[in-house]
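Final paragraph of the annual report: two paired records, presented back to back.
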Amino acid sequence: MAKALVAFYPLAGRLGVDSDGRIEISCNGEGALFVVARAAELTIEDVKDFKPSPELRRQFVPRIEPSSVILAVQVTFFKCGGVALGTALHHVAIDASSAFHFFQTWSAFSRDSDDHAAVELPCHDLHPDALTTFYPLITYIEPSGPLAGEVFTISRDQIASLKRLTCGGDGATTSTFCAVSALLWQCVCIARRLPPNSEARLDILANIRRRVKPPLPDRYFGNALVRLGVTAAVGDIVSEELASVAGRIRRAIGRMDDGDGDMVVARKEKKDDGARRSKATLPETELQVVSWLGMPMYDADFGWGKPLVMSRAESTRGGNVHLMSDGLAGGGVRVLVCMEARNIKELERLLYAKL
């Protein structure tokens, strides 16, 4: 890991605040937090579903102290010989693409030794005029009731059927992301029993490394995300065919490809008074989808073979959804949802009824 941190040196630094009150990274080389733990009573079978929960995070992800630490790692050895690698990375410094690039590099150095590891080192160079940064506000509120997290698995065959169902009348193909997001948006609006005349919003966080002009290299280190918003009346979303809902999402992404991706959006959170960060939630009319589909989630082979499963340890923000590849079923998708506990079972029923 030390070798990888030489190339990914900001992860070995500390968060601070400059004279203007803005967050900055001090590249002081203080290093990452590294913890070794032993789960003497547990086997991989006991936790292999890795459903995000406070307990899963407590067991396998180290508590970050002090809070200025950017990278924290815990290696847990099970009594069966299995190993879990739990990490905490500060989003101020890095997005998912850069995080997986770091894990690929670290595992390659561990597996193949420094001299033989085939790695692409991160790119830290960026011309100051290449990107324009602005800060749209996201309003988080105090949840009106308990939140719950759930994992829904969609098989490869179900994905193929869903993509056929969401193809546009013009013959346009639909990506896995658009198909699953359309299904989720419609089902969530129904499960929440939203008023038909209210406005629903779907937010998408998109990687724009290849979309800006000139494009950034895939190995660009940092955050290169744009936040897209799709809005429509709830009555339209719940009554339209899934192909029409998917078309709304596809057109929003298309507008970014037509030039709206010239700006990088660093999200800034705005919370109502009294809404604590750890338990904040989006308004029930909003849903935010983050996609890890297509990312090298299962490429981190430290010499023990590819990971059995990779997942978030905890999901505590109401209205947040993460899409990721299912390592146990090739071609399937795992959908991690955090929302109001009173509605999540209805979402499950609707989701599988439409598949």
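The closing record of the year follows.
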Amino acid sequence: MSRPRILLAIPNTLSTRNLLRTDVLPLLKAEAERVILVAPFADEPGFRAEFVTDNVVAYPMAPYRPRVRERFLHSAIYNLYLGGSTSGSLQLFLDRWGDNHPYLGPLRRFVTRRALSHLAFLSPWLERAFVETGAAGGYAAMLTRERPDVAVFSRLFFCDEIPLMRAAARAGIPTVGIVASWDNLTNKGALVPRMDRLIVWNETMRREAERYHRYRSDEVAVTGAPHHDQVFAPREPLAPREAFFRELGLDPAKRLITYAGEDPIIAPDAPRYVELIDRFIREGRLATPCQLLVRPHPQDDARRFDRVRQLPSVVFDLPGRPSARYWMDMTQRDLRHLYETLRHSDLIVNVTSTIVVDAAFFDTPSICIGFAYTTPRGFYNSPLRFYDMDHYRCVMEAGATTLVRSEEELLVAINRYLADPGLESEGRRRIARQIAQFDDGRCGWRTAGAILEAARPRVPRLEVGAARNTAGRGSAT
């Protein structure tokens, strides 16, 4: 039987990290006749040198510029979805919009929750119209030439992949959607176009796919996140504390607090938080001598932190490398550096970031900030709203972190963890098990196996071996 031809849509550098710089791409190359990459940076020399070798080819992905009709259809689909049995996160978004629009807000909430809930029968028709009548980006000729047996998508929600999704659906090519992160199925709205199969990290996400997106259990493969293999079975051991501190110019005699940044929309006051922690350090208000490592989010504009870079207690660490068109591009070395940071930090401070889960893999304590300086008053505009979202509520319910609502609470929490880093350790283990699910270093194998199974369902899938669902402290020594 012939070997399959596999198309991978790589719309951003997060997908590059998750699929191309893990075991997924090498395993697919070994099993497939041809791997077809479609990416916005397909013509960049660095991308081609790293990935376009042997039986791998690359085609450019154009930006998606939806027409008025497409925007209307997507808006109608989204609002009908919002009127159904959707996640608490999306209901929170609706309530926030209503709270910030005192005249139209009550009307929209009434229409969405009372009227649109009776029109759900229109959704399949609208979704079909969205797929069949929208632009397909000129991908038809490429699909005819390359003849992929499966098309794999890795961003999914109203993004640059949409025209290629349409083209694949119209050509009758089986589709697989890899859900990029643990929050996507509850935060992003309707998944349109619908994929034939989904690949998710854990059983919680499988249940979300069934409940909120109408997938059957047998249409969802639970594989773990391929990039988590770097935590539990790293290709290279993480640097020891002494080498890590030396690389960043840190003082080995002091404890390390790391402020991990978030998207500026989520944490507009990040520089103020950094100044506050620096003041705690300088004024001697912490229980032991400390230093502060500031690591902005890859999506953030580093210039936002210009005024705090020269503070006496602060060391600045910018993740990744610039990409021509998208977020900072994280290499395997950058990912390893992130995990070294989490392993060797004594404490992580953040605003509702995935970094809390990543830190839990290493049993590193974390604090979540729930107060703000510049946002409008009220719950729906404060950082506290993020901790009520479905995905983050499980972190709070696991007891994996501490939420602080004022400067004084932040100071108390920092000193509490400096005095006893083992506090909430069991909660961190719980959330690590729930989110990672697998700690055997074979998530990339399972992901590749699920893709190959979709490409050739009559051929035995790639053997991935037994998996242990016992994620705990990261193995990097």
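The first strand starts at residue 5 and ends at 9. This concludes the annual technical report; the extension proposal builds directly on these records.
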